[in-house]
Structures are given as C-alpha cells and as structure tokens.
Amino acid sequence: MAKIIDGKALSQHCITQMAGDVQALKENGIVPGLAVIIVGEDDASQIYVRNKHRKAEKIGINSIVIRLSTETTQLELLERISLLNHDPKIDGILVQLPLPSHINAEAVLDSITPEKDVDGFHPVNVGKLWSNRAEIVPSTPFGIMKMLEFYNVDPTGKNAVIIGRSTIVGRPMAAMLLNANATVTIVHSQTKNLQEITQQADILVVAIGRSEYIKAKDIKAGAVVIDVGMNRDINNKLTGDVDYEDCFDKASLITPVPGGVGPMTITMLMQQTINIAKRRALNDTGNKR
Ligand SMILES: Nc1nc(=O)c2c([nH]1)NC[C@@H]1CN(c3ccc(C(=O)N[C@@H](CCC(=O)O)C(=O)O)cc3)C=[N+]21
After folding, report:
1. ipTM of this predicted complex?
2. N or C: which end of the chain has fewer CB within 10 A?
3. What are the structural domains of the chain?
4. Could you tell me which of 107, 119, 46 has the C-alpha nearest to residue 79?
5. Is residue 143 a known part of a binding site?
6. pLDDT tens for each residue of 238-275
7. Contacts of 192 (CB under 8 A, 6+ apart)
8. How many angstroms separate the alpha carbon of residue 8 from the centre of ligand 1?
9. Binding residues for NADP(+), per the UniProt record (predicted)?
10. In what order do the strands lie in the sheet with 253-254?
11. Are 252 and 240 in contact (CB under 8 A)?
C-alpha cells in the first residue's frame, strides 16, 4: 500500500510539465520572470532563496534575486518593489519573510501589485480566494491541494481539520478546502478539547510549529495527515509537527518531513509565476515584451 505522499517525486513530476509550458511560452516570445527580494542575512532564508532560484532556472523561468542589507529602510524597499511592479519582464514578486523588525511587513506586502503577488498574500488576492474566484493563492496550501488531487483524495463532504490559523497556511488552507466542498474546521492555541476535534478529521492539516505534537491517539483511523511543520531539533535535524512513526500505521496517507509539503511549496511558486505569465500573454495586445 502506497501510504507516503511523496512531495519530492510529485514536485519533480510538476517541474517536468512546467518546463514544457515555459518552452511553449518562450516560443511565443514570453519568458516568465520571478523576482525574489531578501533583506538581511537570515541563514534559513538564504537557503530557501537559493533553492527557489535553482528550481526556477531548471524550469526556464528568469529568476532574479535582490539581496538587500539588514539596514535597508522601508522606503528603499518600497521603491524597489515599485520598480518591479512596473517592470514588464517581471511576472511574480516575492519578498522573503521574515523581514527585519524595523520594517512593517504588512505595508511592504500590500505595496506589491496584486497581479504580481506570487505569494497570494495581498488582501485583494485573499479576498478573491475567500470568494471562490482565486487567481493567485499562497503556495503552501496550493501545494497541499495538488498533493490531495494527485493521490485521489476528493475533499467533497469530508471533515477537514486544520491546526493553525496563520495567514500563510491555516486560513488560505481553510478557504481552499471549503472551495473544494469539504466541511472545514480550524483549531488553534485557544481551542478547547483540540484532540476531540482532530480525532474526527478525515483530512488533517497540521501547522502549529511544535515538533512531533500530533500522535496516533490524536488522529482518526484512515485519516489523511498533512504535516506543514518545519522544526529544527538540537542536532539541526528537520522534524515535522506530526509524530510520523507513531501515526504511520493509523493514517491512510501521510506526508514526510522533509520531502513532503516543503518541496511542493517552492514548486507551486513556480507554477503561479507561469500562470501569471500566461495571463499576461493573453492580455498583451501590443508587443511590449
Ligand atoms: N514570502 C515568503 N514566501 C514563502 O513561501 C516563504 C517565505 N516567505 N519565508 C519562509 C517560508 C518557508 N518556505 C519553505 C519552502 C520550501 C521548503 C523546503 O523545500 N523544505 C525541504 C527541506 C529543506 C531543508 O532540508 O532545510 C523539505 O521539506 O523537504 C521549506 C520552507 C517558504 N517560505
């Protein structure tokens, strides 16, 4: 029984398809462009940004990385974004989080034009997602939807429980599962009797940031368990929010960490860059590019 949802393999499969799409776009004179801005020296962020750049190159996306010092002012950052907003070669703009504390992240993210907001964090894109007319959506939950689809998990009528209410994962995940006809519950740090609710979940998405918090006793037999956690233990080993060994036998499908949700997140970022480029190709009446 194939039980493991292999994010790495699915990611490879998507990359092959995307490379073909990009080739076709290029034959029509369009090169999808992704700009990633990183402020400061955060080690983890540097690694993610390098991985994104590598994946983009592999697919044929024109990827530019803008590295700014920790001392960059908010105004300087806003000016950079404004230039990218108006740059016809750039389809997607991503500002790597977290930002240094002297910068108001909300103001910065809101300054990205919604059409190029490849993370789907802009209020316009959040509103479209919740009205079931999404164009650009956050990559992590989008990758999870792709995983469910590929492994033939139809959310229709299922109890989907999400642990965590962040704007990056929990909330958009709830909207997407609702749009896919699931019965959706979000639980969080203030929820009473959390386990009683997770035990009812046919689909359980865990994004709480506590290492191996979810045990076999917390899940329903046959549940599909999606682990969004990324915790480093004392030996710098990556662990999820789900106790994988403990839950493995009880779940019908389960994602590993690493090799689950993480690789799909980056892959979906590329997918959305391509989708934006395709939309702009359709709208390009002149030959501005
Ligand atoms: N504006 C913005 N958009 C983001 O999408 C964004 C961000 N900021 N800030 C940081 C988080 C984190 N994130 C990850 C992406 C891929 C892996 C990934 O590929 N993980 C590998 C393992 C990598 C390793 O071993 O360290 C895996 O799970 O197999 C992890 C984390 C995107 N983020």
Report:
1. 0.95
2. N
3. 30-113 (3.40.50.10860), 139-262 (3.40.50.720)
4. 107
5. no
6. 999 999 999 999 999 999 999 999 999 999 999 999 99
7. none
8. 13
9. 164-166
10. 183-187, 159-163, 203-206, 224-227, 253-254
11. no
